[in-house]
Known about the structure:
This protein is of the alpha/beta class and 320 residues long. The protein has helices spanning 2-5, 12-19, 43-58, 74-84, 102-106, 131-144, 162-176, 195-212, 227-239, 272-289, 291-297, and strands at residues 24-28, 62-66, 89-93, 113-116, 125-129, 149-154, 180-185, 221-224, 249-254, 266-269, 301-304, 307-309. It is built from 11 helices and 12 strands. The strands form 2 sheets. Strands 2-1-3-4-5-11 form a 6-stranded parallel β-sheet. A 6-stranded mixed β-sheet has the order 7-6-8-9-10-12, with helices on both faces. Strand 6, helix 7 (162-176) and strand 7 (180-185) form a beta-alpha-beta unit. Helix 8 (195-212) crosses helix 9 (227-239) and helix 10 runs antiparallel to helix 11.
Amino acid sequence: EAAQKLGYVSNHHMRSIRRGRADVLGLVLETDGPPGQGGRSTDYIDCITHGVLQEACQAEQAVQVIMPTSKLSAAEQGLKALRSGAIDGLVVPGIFARIQHASLLRDFASLPLVVIQPTEPTPYAAIDFNQAAGAQLSAQHLLELGHRELLWVGSAGLPGSADQIREHTFLSEILKARGFGSVCHIELLNKSASTEQWIELSDQQISTYFQQCPTERFPTGIACFNDLIAMGVIRALRRMNLHVPHDVSVVGFDNVYSVLQDPPLTTVDHRFSQMGQLAVQRLLELIDGGEKKYEQYNGHVERIEPELIIRTSTGQAKTQ
């Protein structure tokens, strides 16, 4: 109390020295291209970063965002900082831990590191998302509203990818309910497409699909791989003078900017921010617990469950 009255503030550096800790966590933000070509911000990364920062702040930890240099990838930079003691642990979004960095990361399996949504098996603690459950929520919601002619819109994806898991789960749910499910694959020439490009491409390609779709098979319920595709779908439907949700119900996925859509988009919450928060919680446990916590968490995947956010882009199917 006396210290507070005098305005005393503890010295961060002295506290770190006493604890043998930097009290700094690293967040790896890689690029898709070679080292030195700069960073690429995405809605996915922005939301995860928000969760990481929020949880770190609660734990009185600083966060160092680690970017690539002209010589080193962000993963290499992060491992260098970790081994030097400049940071205490690393959070690595899975899209930045794939392929070119997999062997590099496997060489240091005893370091405090958490991977968010790994794209391949990892020896580290991992936070993932239940993709199949998210697609089930989409399908069940539309089926409960009475829709039987249903369409999935997304990219084809590789075997085992989120694209395929969601698509196959969605179609399986429809089949079990004896509905009719079809698929429209959106081809993205550039995986780094901007938000507007995602919407434009979805609009163009779904318009072509609708023009070729037999009238008796025109969907009354549409589920999309992400919210941006859903926005493109709604734009295309509006141009055809079809009203959402009175004529066609549309469900998105991710819950990023979906409330800003007109009408506000029913969507599956991917809970990106919560994944970032949980990653920091597990990372701090690894830092504090040492080898025992490594044994508990390394190679273990924790899955966050989705939540369906119902807004006004979905409604009861029209009676014939």
